[in-house]
Amino acid sequence: MTYRYQVALVFLLGFFIDCVNIFMSAVALPSIATDLQVSGTAVAWVANAYILGLTLIMPISTWLAGRYGSREILTLSMLLFSITAGLCALAGSFPELLFWRLLQGIGGGLLIPVGQALTFNLFQGEQRAKISTLIMAVALIAPALSPPLGGLIVDHSSWRWVFSSNLPFSLLAAGLAWCWIRERRAPPGPRPDLRGLLLVSAALATLLLGLSLYGTDYPPLAAASCLLAGIGFSLLYIRHCRRSTHPIVDLRLLRSVRLSGSIGIYYAIPGLFTGVNLLSMFFLQDTLHFSAGLTGSFMVLYAGGAFVAMLVCGRVYQRMGARRLFGLALLLHSAGIGLLCGVDTAADLPLIIAAYGLMGVGGGIGANTAQTTALLDFDGALTHKGSVIWNINRQMSFSLGAALLLMICNLLLRTLPTHSAYHLSWAIAALLGLLPLLYLHRLQPAKQDTYAHLQR
Known about the structure:
This protein has 456 residues and is mainly alpha-helical. The protein has a single domain (3-180, 248-441), classed as MFS general substrate transporter like domains (Growth Hormone, Chain: A), CATH 1.20.1250.20. It has helices at 3-35, 40-43, 45-68, 70-89, 94-122, 126-156, 160-164, 167-180, 194-213, 220-243, 257-287, 292-340, 349-373, 381-413, 418-432. Helix 4 runs antiparallel to helix 8. The longest helix is centred in the C-terminal third of the chain and has 49 residues, at 292-340. It is globular, with a radius of gyration of 21 Å.
């Protein structure tokens, strides 16, 4: 195996672990909520805490790699991930579980941008599209395998084993990183922008907290205050970014229509799907009384549709272009969400199957095209910066999508019957998923652009 494929394998294994960690834990959330006696809204913080950890460390991960070495950072990330996975399984209370999930996110956040930047710098031009296809293949295999396996674990054992099951893979990734990575240590860049890091973390934390509180038993003023604080921290960071020479998250790179457009698609498709799927888990298990194993198995249908779409997308990307593929993806994905609005009883199983299949095809086209398109304009140091923005937003899309739809559903449950509240929540999600159609015209076919001016 050549060196670049060794590097790619380390990154893909870490990426696989990250995806498994998100989707396997999702199917266990109803069980965690019951066991630790917390609400459905609160239990979503099992995922949110992980995302916050990722956000906290991702922006400085490449600086740490430059200072201490990529091999050392990649190995440390997977060791930290392994230790905290075991501690999550042993957590005796909900706050304790959230604390270890936060640290687990820090472990995952060290690996992803460093590994992706190393990999993408070794695969240039058309080869980058091929490695993007491999990345998306991993992104499909993980959601296909982890929810049904997680459901079986929950049904026949305990949700705690959902976290313990990550250990063999993360320890393997740590060993391979130590043995294979031999990237020369680059001179460390400027000191990390700690003020910017605090502003970014505060913005995300308060926005998620506001969305989580809104529509629950907490006073509306508390939720509104958190949301306003989140908006305020976001504006402060934008101002800080304009004045900083080396901002922690370089928003100037968003002038790349390919990067900003791909990020928007990720919020509209995988992000919203995370929320849709979370509502589906609670609706099917708590209302229609499906087992955790059966609800998890629907992700196999999603992954199957996405796998077919990925194969087709890899062949037609150059011919059709990102704009057409994104448009098709948005339409198919929203159509799949819309089918869930017709699910009333356990007898509507064919409708659920069709819904997850359609969402899978749309999700596969959208996510694969976004992964291929996002960093096309960058190389060298800009790849590292672009990778940080891309991965932070990729992870944030999952949490914000889940928090937004949980908030909408909680508000609707106050005034509507259970079935109607879920149906209307999915209808709103389907409409929200079509919003990026309004700006797809900006993704005009163009020659490879050079974005060196983004550093100015």
